[in-house]
Design goal:
With 282 residues, the chain is α+β, with helices and mostly antiparallel strands. Among the domains are: 90-137; 142-279, Immunoglobulin-like (Sandwich). The chain has helices at 10-14, 17-79, 90-137, 215-218, 221-228; strands at 142-147, 154-161, 167-180, 198-200, 207-213, 232-243, 256-266, 269-272. The chain starts with 9 loop residues before the first helix and ends in a 10-residue tail after the last strand.
Length: 282
């Protein structure tokens, strides 16, 4: 019938606020159930972990106790004065052995270096002497000789070049001196006998540089008497300076060489005499 009011069904009566409140309560209960399950699960895991930790604690406790016991024994030994025994330490003995061998090897090395250094110095000295001998063989050498007198008590002194290198005579000093008995000669070179320099070579032979006649002294009777009675000694002495025209020093100048000579007179004869410096050469 149109316009008739239909009766409410049972389902429609159950809908409304009561239905929504039931649904909310169901969701809340489910949430609480899930939360409870999660909390239970977490509680069980913690217990397991705690049990595992407790198990591990009980498992490692004997080892820790053993270590503590060993440490205690070491402390007790140290307290009792048990010192370290190096003779039983293999590494220490090897280190000490290598150290000793190293020191010995170092000393031997120093000795070898010293011997080699000494040998090197000797070789250098020998080489220097050889070089000096070679240089000396390649330089002029002037020597003084005497000539047989033509008349008694007259003497002639000559210069001669002994090497194959010519020498240029630049100065020639000569004189005579008398010395009292018991006194030594003090050479004095002050009288120049050379008028001009000259070149002296081996092919030229000896060349006169000084001559003297004893007759000139006989005029001085007191002096000549002292000479005759050996209260005084008569000396003839001189010095020759010369250069090598072919060689120069580091400064570019000629090296001046010299030859000193000295003769004594006794009883009409002459002979090499005088102190060492009066018969020297450079």
């Amino acid at each position: 019938m149109r316009g008739a009011i239909m009766p409410r069904s049972k389902f429609s009566r159950a809908s409304g606020p009561s239905m929504y409140s039931g649904l909310c309560m169901g969701l809340i209960m489910r949430f609480l159930l899930i939360a409870s399950l999660l909390l239970f699960a977490n509680g069980s895991g913690y217990d397991c972990k705690a049990g595992n930790t407790q198990y591990k604690k009980h498992q490692w406790q004997p080892h820790m106790m053993q270590r503590l016991a060993v440490m205690g024994e070491v402390d007790v030994r140290l307290e009792q004065g048990d010192s370290y025994d190096a003779s039983k330490d293999l590494l220490y003995r090897l280190y000490l052995l290598f150290t000793i061998f190293g020191v010995i090897a170092a000393m031997i090395g120093l000795g070898v270096i010293y011997v080699q250094t000494k040998a090197t110095k000797e070789a250098a000295r020998a080489a220097l002497l050889n070089a000096q001998a070679l240089i000396n063989s390649q330089r002029p050498w002037i020597a003084i000789r005497t000539k047989e007198p033509k008349t008694p008590d007259s003497f002639e002194f000559q210069a001669i070049c002994l090497s194959g290198i010519p020498a240029k005579i630049i100065h020639s000093y000569a004189d005579w001196q008398t010395v009292d008995r018991g006194k030594s000669l003090q050479p004095i070179y002050k009288i120049e006998m050379l008028q001009y320099p000259f070149l002296l070579a081996p092919p030229d032979g000896p060349r006169k540089i000084y001559d003297f006649s004893v007759e000139s002294l006989k005029a001085n009777v007191p002096l000549w008497k002292e000479i005759q009675e050996l209260d005084k000694t008569l000396y003839f002495l001189g010095k020759v300076e010369y250069i090598d025209e072919l060689s120069f020093d580091s400064a570019g100048k000629h090296v001046i060489h010299e030859t000193r000579w000295c003769y004594g007179y006794i009883g009409g004869a002459i002979f090499r005499s005088g102190p060492p410096e009066s018969n020297d050469y450079t």
